[in-house]
Amino acid sequence: MSYARSLANSGIQLANAYPLAASLLLGFGAITIAKFCYRTLSLKRYGAKKGAWAIVTGTSDGIDKEFAFQLAKAGFNVFLVARNLELLDTAAAEIASKYSVSTQTASIDFAKDDDAAYEILSQKFQGLDVGVLVNNVGKSHAMPVYLVDTPKEEMADIVSINVNATMRVTYSILPGMIHGKRGLILNIGSFAGAIPSPMLATYSGTKAFLATFTSALAEEVRQHGITVEHINTYFVVSKLSKIRKSSTLIS
Ligand SMILES: NC(=O)c1ccc[n+]([C@@H]2O[C@H](COP(=O)([O-])OP(=O)(O)OC[C@H]3O[C@@H](n4cnc5c(N)ncnc54)[C@H](OP(=O)(O)O)[C@@H]3O)[C@@H](O)[C@H]2O)c1
Question: Whose CA is nearest to atom 14 of ligand 1?
Answer without folding.
Answer: 62
